């Protein structure tokens, strides 16, 4: 049977919902959906009205004085405040706190993004429903719509709560940290007594143009790369070496040796680091005293503080990190080796392969293929390995050519000093962005080249 009923334009409900949320649904004879969208609009208006000061605008409208959650949030994000607080006899006067305004502005923007998504859904739903009614001659009831929505969008509906938590707990701090890099938030501009201003790319320019900053950055960044590579490689091959030995048939009591070697990893790292720091203390450490007593040295060795020999401190940090890190790779590779197909080795022996050839041609490639993603993760972890550097050397020995950094400082410990010691939050934020770009780029590029990633793409 051909439906000769006149077709109604889907533009009208779309425009109606764009003006008043839910009005298009009401025109489509869906009162429950119309009420749902209309309530959302009412809530938005009420939040702005109740959090603002719209009842007292005798002196004209002001975003600072009259704006509510959204309008004042946007104003604060743009201006970062206009009136600093001052100390008086009665305490601090009323004024603006730039960092609070920045955070409130970010929250307002995130909420507005969510509301814009609902606004788009409201309009799209009104248009789509009218088109469906024109094609089928039937307007779905609310129950039918909800059933179809639950079936087609189940995965997204379940993910929405986690996505919202992720947005405000993880994404918001990242946005805040990025925006700080474009301000002059430092010791000379500390709220609430001083306001923070937007400075654009000045911090990035200063990092590379001012000699004291550029030389420090290049020196610290270079050592960070060297540290990340060497600490990862030494732990990887140290763990591989131990795993190969423990996997040998001639080794007795394998469970005992595995338990013994796993202890450095099982003990909290901070405790081990503080013990090593005491052992190798240049003034009263037992290691320096022992070497002095047996005559190997004529004076105490400053393992971590000798500015004339900074490579000694760097080598010590790498050695101690090897002690803490090799058990992880040992346990990982032991598990990989036990799962390797023994027939491969039997075929290699029949072909006359030596144990060395078996290792480099069979064991090592298979282990590397299985552990490559974790190796990349280990590199990223070591790039930001704050604990080992800070608890052992605190970035020392002192380097007079560096700005607030020492010879063993890596980017993350330098950032810590910039924030805690000298309150240069904006420059620390610039460093954080550089770390993110470097780690993200290297990890993404390397991981995309691993066999595990390629196999996942094929599947």
TrEMBL record:
Tell me the Gene Ontology biological-process terms attached to this UniProt entry.
maltodextrin transmembrane transport
Where is the chain membrane-spanning? Answer: 34-54, 99-121, 156-182, 220-247, 259-280, 312-338, 359-380, 424-445
Q: Which CDD domains match?
A: TM_PBP2
Spell out the GO cellular component terms annotated for this protein, sorted alphabetically and separated by semicolons: maltose transport complex
Cellular location of this protein? Answer: Cell membrane
Keyword Membrane belongs to the record: yes
Q: Name one GO molecular function term.
A: ABC-type maltose transporter activity
What UniProt keywords are attached to this protein's entry? Cell membrane, Membrane, Sugar transport, Transmembrane, Transmembrane helix, Transport
Q: How does it sit in the membrane?
A: Multi-pass membrane protein
Biological function:
Part of the ABC transporter complex MalEFGK involved in maltose/maltodextrin import. Probably responsible for the translocation of the substrate across the membrane.
- Of which family is this protein a member? Belongs to the binding-protein-dependent transport system permease family. MalFG subfamily.
User: What protein name is recorded for this chain?
Assistant: Maltose/maltodextrin transport system permease protein
Q: Which organism is it from?
A: Priestia koreensis
């Amino acid at each position: 049977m051909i439906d000769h009923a006149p077709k109604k334009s889907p533009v009208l409900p779309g425009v109606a919902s764009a003006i008043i949320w839910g009005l298009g649904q009401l025109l489509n004879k869906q009162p429950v959906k119309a009420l749902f969208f209309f309530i959302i609009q009412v809530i938005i208006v009420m939040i702005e009205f109740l959090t603002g000061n719209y009842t007292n605008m005798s002196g004209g409208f002001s975003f600072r004085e009259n704006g509510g959650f959204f309008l004042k949030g946007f104003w604060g994000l743009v201006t970062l405040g206009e009136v600093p607080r001052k100390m008086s006899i009665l305490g601090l006067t009323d004024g603006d706190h730039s960092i609070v305004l920045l955070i409130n502005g970010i929250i307002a923007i995130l909420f507005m993004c969510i509301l814009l998504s609902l606004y788009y859904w409201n309009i799209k739903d009104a248009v789509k429903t009218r088109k469906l009614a024109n094609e089928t001659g039937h307007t779905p009831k609310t129950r039918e719509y909800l059933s179809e929505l639950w079936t087609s969008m189940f995965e997204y509906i379940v993910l929405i709560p986690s996505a919202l938590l992720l947005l405000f707990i993880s994404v918001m701090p990242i946005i805040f940290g990025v925006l700080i890099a474009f301000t002059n938030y430092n010791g000379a501009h500390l709220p609430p007594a001083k306001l923070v201003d937007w400075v654009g790319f000045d911090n990035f320019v200063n990092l590379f143009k001012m000699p004291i900053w550029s030389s420090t950055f290049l020196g610290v960044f270079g050592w960070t790369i060297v540290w990340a590579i060497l600490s990862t490689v030494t732990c990887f091959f140290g763990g591989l070496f131990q795993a190969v030995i423990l996997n040998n048939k001639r080794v007795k009591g394998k469970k005992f040796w595995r338990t013994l070697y796993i202890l450095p990893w099982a003990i909290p790292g901070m405790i081990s680091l503080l013990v090593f720091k005491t052992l190798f203390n240049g003034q009263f450490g037992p290691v320096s005293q022992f070497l002095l007593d047996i005559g190997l040295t004529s004076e105490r060795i400053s393992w971590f503080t000798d500015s004339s020999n900074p490579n000694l401190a760097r080598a010590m940090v790498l050695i101690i990190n090897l002690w803490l890190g090799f058990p992880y790779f040992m346990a990982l590779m032991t598990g990989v080796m036990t799962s390797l197909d023994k027939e491969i080795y039997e075929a290699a022996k029949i072909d006359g392969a030596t144990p060395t050839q078996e290792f480099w041609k069979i064991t090592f490639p298979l282990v590397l293929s299985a552990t490559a993603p974790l190796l990349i993760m280990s590199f990223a972890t070591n790039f930001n390995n704050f604990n080992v550097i800070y608890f052992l050397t605190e970035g020392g020995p002192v380097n007079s050519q560096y700005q607030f950094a020492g010879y063993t400082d890596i980017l993350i410990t330098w950032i810590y000093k910039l924030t805690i010691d000298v309150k240069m939050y904006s420059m620390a934020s610039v460093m954080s962005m550089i770390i993110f770009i470097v780690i993200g780029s290297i990890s993404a590029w390397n991981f995309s080249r691993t066999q595990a990633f390629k196999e996942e793409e094929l599947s």
